[in-house]
Amino acid sequence: MSKGKAAGPDRQGLKVRVKTAAKRKLSSTLWLERQLNDPYVAAAKKAGYRSRAAFKLIEMDDRLHLLKPGATVVDLGAAPGGWSQIAAQRVRSRPVDPEPRGRVVGLDLLEVAPVAGAEIIQLDFLDDDAPARLRAMLGRPADVVLSDMAAGATGHRPTDHLKIVALCEAAAAFAVEVLRPGGSFVAKVIQGGTEGDLLAQLRRHFAQVRHIKPPASRSDSAELYLVATGFRP
Ligand SMILES: C[S@@+](CC[C@H](N)C(=O)[O-])C[C@H]1O[C@@H](n2cnc3c(N)ncnc32)[C@H](O)[C@@H]1O
To answer: Which parts of the chain fold into alpha helices (H)?
Structure first.
């Protein structure tokens, strides 16, 4: 894996068709077909990234330049590890990286196989003691807090909105506690789900707050990323 900028998806050859099978639901067949024809899935595999989501972080960071060499990064909702891989590469926290060396600390409900240059614990971020445990692991203020956390979809849109807003609010409260002045916060949200209190609170604490939809985020998904930069404690 080199710098992470070169490995864009190849959009040619999107032609795999999956036959319906008696034991497979139509929704599973369509999901499989989409995976097999997705240029980002193929590019992630080729580059050795654990997730196609890695490209969302690459695309956002190529635009925003938040992950600087030597920076300390928190990755919330890290499994299977794609964002941690990109963050570790860019802040230079891997053993092979030259100075200045950064740091990546992450967390997920699921177990994450070791990622070079990242320390990831298995924990529910909504547990009362999760923020304190992460702060203890960090031992210093963070430059960037990332959250790609997403609760399993129930299929009931209002419920899914509430769940993702709750995760985003908890991540924002944590970011305000651990960021150093000038730091940044990036969190997954759902279109229409973050108006009101959360945006107002973030605007009080950050010089700039905006929404970004990176090209790798599927156009038929309501997912967006909230990007808050220039933290003012
Ligand atoms: C879209 S995935 C993250 C993908 C990751 N950014 C990558 O590139 O590999 C969302 C993750 O959020 C995690 N998650 C959801 N709720 C969580 C919670 N309360 N605490 C910790 N992790 C959570 C899920 O387990 C899931 O692994």
So the answer is: 26-37, 39-47, 54-64, 82-91, 130-138, 157-178, 197-205
The mean predicted confidence, pLDDT, of the chain is 89
Residue 123 half-sphere exposure, CB side, CA atoms within 13 Å? 19
Residues in CB range of 213: below 8 A, 6 or more apart: 223, 224, 225
CATH 3.40.50.150 fits 50-231, yes or no: yes
Cα 75 to ligand 1 centroid, rounded to whole Å: 9
Q: Note if 45 is an active site residue.
A: no
User: How far is residue 12's CA from residue 147's CA, in Å, rounded to a whole number?
Assistant: 32
Spacing, Cα 15 to ligand 1 middle (Å): 30
Confirm whether pTM is higher than 0.85: yes
CATH 3.40.50.150 in the chain: give the residue spans.
Answer: 50-231
State if residue 106 touches ligand 1 by the CB under 6 angstroms criterion. Answer: no
